[in-house]
């Protein structure tokens, strides 16, 4: 059987990958990170690992992964389960960048070194399709801007920085992260096809970026196997995110109002944060008088670690500001943790067939707190949401179906090119 050769340019890391990678030890950056206790690595963009696991079974596809990774000593290439990996050291992870960020508060905006390395690897592979997963991450997506034009290129959305909702809820992007919005637009203009099913995103792209854009019905492999734990609960509510600054402030304000009705409830916060963010947050928690009821874990290494931690809570408090549906909502639903969240263009769809989550308007902390109190007091509500959410996850999020659709899109693109 003749195979089609596909390259994914993306960000990904998991424990199996990190066991194969060789990390630098005696560079100035390595020594500095050891002194600061910052050599820890973490799972990244787990949906890419999910998709790879499905593609390992496709006998008609030869899949290559090209990804930047922190702390690498060199370009590293290996094969696992017939998937070929090509990792480069991320240019962001260098001593000069650290000094610029820490001392001069400068943020790198040029990733041409990464792009050149990535495109050199693509040229060596000579694939039939190049698929960039995440236009918003210039450390690898910038490679699309100067890529060879004779290979069809798909760019899949993980989010859309150009979305006015995203920018409204992250005002600092206009100053510190404007280069990412600009790079995202350039990458999308270079794409032969853009992968997203979101009509909301498609409308924005047509109006603001690429009027003649061609779209493919592609979503990410964000599905979670339904697995409901009966472990003893240590906390009432959990908020979790890779970076808690996404919406933990909303969670804290709503939690404080719920405490007024239920004085002994607790909030467990799981995820990473910067020193500059956490101190004002803790000051606000103290001002609200709830410091004895809130605790933090910091960032955890693996996706499994996160799941094990959130399963210690009875309920999930997961307000959303900019995402359509956050991965954390799907993960909580799949693991039997009833969810309180906010209304976005997409979250109400999770209730279309059956009530699976509790919703309130963004910024309406009283309504969010009322939903929390409903979970604490309304008989049968938590059990009903748990059961309904499991059914919704099974219906809406099948990684196997998603990756079969990706494979179909690849064949359709090649057929279009050949004809």
Description:
- The chain is α/β, with parallel strands linked by helices.
- It is built from 16 helices and 14 strands.
- It has an 8-stranded mixed sheet with strand order 3-4-2-1-5-6-7-8, with helices on both faces. Strands 11-10-9-12-13-14 form a 6-stranded parallel sheet, with helices on both faces.
- The longest helix has 20 residues.
- The mean pLDDT is 91.
Structure classification: alpha/beta
Strand order of the main beta sheet, please? 3-4-2-1-5-6-7-8
Q: Strand content of the residues, in percent?
A: 15-25%
Query: How would you state the average pLDDT, rounded?
Result: 91
Q: Characterize the largest beta sheet: strand count, sense, and whether it forms a barrel.
A: 8 strands, mixed
The rounded Rg comes to 22 Å
Straight-line distance between termini: 21 Å
**Topology as a string of helices (H) and strands (E):** EHHHEEEHHEHEHHEHEEHEHEHEHEEHHH
Return residue spans where pLDDT drops below 50 for at least 5 consecutive residues.
Answer: none
Please tally the β strands and state the result: 14
Q: What is the number of helices?
A: 16
Shape verdict: globular
- Oligomeric description of these chains: single chain
Proportion of residues in helical segments? 40-55%
